[in-house]
Design goal:
Length: about 220
């Protein structure tokens, strides 16, 4: 059983609370998905600090059921790109219904994933379905929810540091488990290229929903 220690919350008056909330909103509102990366390396210490932020996420029964595998080796990135493009091409040409293809067409995406080699780092997020303690299997709880929360913090931390990212979800993603040598209890959850934006990069001019479209007050 853990010891319980005093909690020291942040404390601000109401005007400062609102100002901080507005500043943080403006920061997050500038975050965009980027598909064109510079090959400029990202310092290891910076990536490590960003990942430590992701590791502060809440989790079911404090099991912290996530693993972040950081790939910077060009040969491994190439292998991941080739495997991802194989799955993506199959999806674009045979698996996806026309409605899905039409929605993606507006964003200009296709099965080519050059960014998987160009981005200086790939962060592969794995969910840990259970832990092994010798012969004993120890269950993790609310795994997808917990890993999703950690991934959200990761994306905000990446943006806060002046980097860009992309949430890539080739389906199926089992090839990541094989290429990266992860055990059976770890399942690929997200593939996130991380780095600096390419010079002159452009992003789609698309709106976000207004609070009136996704917030309900009772």
């Amino acid at each position: 059983m853990p010891d319980f220690i005093p909690y020291h919350p942040l404390s601000f008056d109401e005007p400062e609370q609102l100002a901080r909330a507005k500043d943080f909103f403006e920061l997050c509102n500038r975050r965009r998905t980027v598909r064109e990366f510079s090959p400029k390396p990202v310092p290891k210490q910076l990536l490590d600090t960003i990942l430590r932020t992701a590791g502060t996420a809440p989790s079911g029964a404090n099991k912290q059921p996530w693993r972040f595998v950081v790939v910077t080796d060009p040969a491994v990135k190439k292998e991941i790109r080739e495997a991802a493009e194989k799955e993506e091409r199959e999806s674009y040409e045979h698996r996806m219904p026309q409605e899905w293809l039409d929605d993606l067409a507006a964003l200009g995406t296709d099965w080519h994933k050059e960014f998987l080699e160009i981005a200086p780092a790939l962060v592969v997020v794995f969910s840990i379905e259970y832990e092994k303690d010798g012969e004993r299997t120890k269950k993790n709880y609310y795994v997808k929810e917990s890993v999703g929360l950690a991934a959200g913090l990761l994306l905000v931390a990446i943006h806060n540091a002046g980097l860009v990212s992309l949430t890539h979800t080739p389906s199926p993603m089992n090839f990541l488990q094989k290429i990266l040598g992860r055990p059976a209890n770890e399942r690929p959850f997200l593939l996130i290229p991380v780095g600096y934006p390419a010079d002159g990069v452009k992003v789609p001019d698309i709106p976000r929903k207004s609070p009136g479209q996704f917030v309900i007050w009772k």
